[in-house]
Amino acid sequence: MLHTEETVVNELNSVNDNPIVDVKSQNIFHGGNFHGDYVSFEMDKLKIAFTKLTMLSERQLNYLLNSKLNEKFPPFVNLGVLGLNFGMQGIQFTATSTTAENQTLSFPMYVHSISNNNDNQDIVSMGYNSAQFAKKVISNAYEVLSIQAMTLLQAIDYLDCQDKMATKTISVYKALREIFPKFVDDAPLYKELARIKTFLENNNP
Prior knowledge:
There is one protein chain. The protein has seven helices and two strands, in the order H-E-E-H-H-H-H-H-H. It has a single domain (35-202), classed as Fumarase C, Chain A, domain 2 (Up-down Bundle), CATH 1.20.200. Helix 2 (37-65) packs antiparallel against helix 4. A two-stranded antiparallel sheet has the order 1-2. Strand 1 (20-22) and strand 2 form a beta hairpin. The protein is 59% helix and 3% strand. It is mainly α.
């Protein structure tokens, strides 16, 4: 990510026109400096990295929700009545479909090139498209991480292990529980999910 930031900052602060007219020396340079190749490549790398993070989060979430795997929590970390309530089962579908969306979006735009402008633009970077997809992938990643965080809150309450948590961890737990109170009876969770996502986006370490 640091390399991506460095590359994008350099490109934003570089000469980005063609031709470059140097009035002082009365020279004109044709260098193709408009081309967004570097940005496109970095955005593709960024979205691939965030997609991998999303996949890891989704698999960890699945482990928490599958009682046959973890052998520790009730199915779907259901804190209500089994058979009457579904716990975190419904919101897992959101995490799974969002992860699948990221996997699709992570295909590189960098390798796409469609000639246009009477074939004058014969090699096109697709940098803007790649940046837009990267933005969507990052937003999706925060959504899956938010669902995982909500599930972890439920797991902590099931184990009743708050007194064993580190000071920093318990402070995060309390902050998230103010947004998403203990979930027992089935209800839509999209509003709480949106608030947790906003919290994570605005509180990066």
